[in-house]
Amino acid sequence: MAERIYRDSVHNIIRVNTDSTEGRLTVALIDTPEFQRLRRIRQLGLAYFAYQAAEHSRFTHSLGAFHLATRMIAKLRMTYEISDETQAAVRIAALLHDVGHGPFSHVIESILGFHHEDFTIAAVLSSETEIGKLLRGFSETLADDVAAIIRGDYKHRALSQLVSSQLDVDRMDYLLRDSLMTGAKYGVYDLEWIIKSIEINVEDDHLYVSTPGLYAVEDYLQARYYMYRQVYFHRTLRSAEAILRVLISRALFLFKSGGDVWNAGGTPLEKVLTGEKLSLSEHLELDDTDVMFAIKRWRHSGDAILSDLADRFLSRRLFKAFDLDMPESERVDFVDQARAIVAAAGFDTDYYFVEDKPSNAPYSFYARGSASPKNLIFVEDGYSRPAIREISSVSSAVRGLQEGYRIHRICFPAELKESIGRLYHGTT
Fold first, then answer.
1. Are 283 and 119 within 8 A, CB to CB?
2. Structural class in CATH, domain 235-360+406-427
3. Helix, strand or coil for residue 225?
4. 32/86 Cα distance (integer angstroms)
5. 8 Å CB contact between 321 and 409
6. Which of 9, 204, 389, 391 has its CA 20 to 30 Å from the CA of residue 29?
7. Is the dihedral of CA 310, 303, 106, 6 positive or negative?
8. pTM exceeds 0.85
9. How far apart are CA 368 and CA 314, in angstroms?
10. Contact predicate 176/195, CB 8 Å
11. pLDDT digit string, tens, across residues 100-136
12. Which is nearest to 14 in space by CA: 71, 93, 58, 53?
């Protein structure tokens, strides 16, 4: 059998059978400029500021998601009728689901106000991208099916849930991968048992996990919970993100006001600074290296704020982050007083005082509150007379996670740690 092999830190060997037309398409998609760009976008954005080995890319994660989709489909096809056409759409959607990500993953996304899935869908459907041309050349319907899976309105809802749901190959891969690469062991769960237990509720067209897999799903959701707390909401990571946000905000302000900001004239970066929406081709030109190069140039700006923020970011002189572990009634006064300390020290509080709240976070916990079946996890309850139920109605362990993890922090120059520390201890 002819095959392309990728050695992987999580799954060991990822194989693509190039004897089949679908396999040859897969390899061709991986080799496109749009997919290769993902090598230059870090999976965890700025997590390497806190976990020095967290340098892995969206490229490796996307291959991992594709590998898990392949395994899931193979398992389901042992029991359920799934056409070759549908299999190809699901596997390719898993492979391409992150193609639209911008530099530093979710960080730039929140600053510039776009959603990577919109660019992913556009790249899939475009007649101008290499990805779009390959999909259209394979079949008349594949591009539309892949876009529908990513968008969440594919005709086979259960199978689209393999790519986009609360129990999907995206989350399954990134938990294991992020746990391994950060060294934080909280993201490990029983993947093999989930794959063994995955089933389709044909009548209602959604995935569920059979009774023996209940504990594996509990394990998976607890892994997500602790990875959010220990990795994705890590103070150092969030502090680095805070500096990047205010740094780019300052660059945007200076560009509009005619200040000293290097802008790489004629490039997509210049268009970003103008506040214009990027075209698909312009968006797919940008990666982490473009932003890092700009920050290195801004370090030498004549604007003291931009230069200082760029230097803090590049030298890892991050803001200090304080968790507001105090009654809600005391927080407003404390935040106001802390902001006044920053201002009195000569810092512009628009750039040197940042509140970090849950609404700023791109990650979320599993919650039953959504009415959409896509956002619920179903399990089989009982052995003798099993019924398919939403997992929190069955598992007390999952019910205990429903409130999630709330953060409210302030970030400010580390030079003011003692002053704000005295204020903090005087109010708690």
1. yes
2. mainly alpha
3. helix
4. 22
5. yes
6. 9
7. negative
8. yes
9. 41
10. no
11. 999 987 777 877 778 899 999 999 999 999 999 999 9
12. 71
Placement of tokens 């990728």 in the chain: 6
CATH assignment of 3-232, among 1.10.3210.10, 3.20.20.100, 1.20.1310.10, 3.40.50.10300: 1.10.3210.10
> Can you give the length of the chain in residues?
428
Helices (H) and strands (E) in the chain, counts: 21, 9
- Give the span between the Cα atoms of 271 and 134, in whole angstroms: 29
- The CB density around residue 336, as the number of other CB atoms within 10 Å, is 9
Q: Is 102 in contact with 112 (CB distance < 8 Å)?
A: yes
What is the torsional sign of CA 55, 58, 63, 69? Answer: positive
Is 116 annotated as catalytic? Answer: yes
> Which region, left, alpha or beta, applies to residue 139 given φ > 0 means left and ψ of -120 to 50 means alpha?
beta
Q: Of 116, 156, 206, 234, which one is the catalytic site residue? A: 116
C-alpha to C-alpha distance for 137 and 189, rounded to whole angstroms:
39
Decide: residue 88, CB within 10 A, 0-12 exposed, 13-18 middle, 19+ buried: buried
Confidence of residue 403 (pLDDT cuts 50, 70, 90): low
pLDDT in tens, 24-43: 999 999 999 999 999 999 99
Whether 398 contacts 221, CB under 8 Å: yes
Which residues belong to CATH 1.20.1250.30 in the chain?
235-360+406-427
For 346, the token pair is 């000569």
The position carrying tokens 């919650």 is 367
CB 245 within 8 A of CB 354: yes
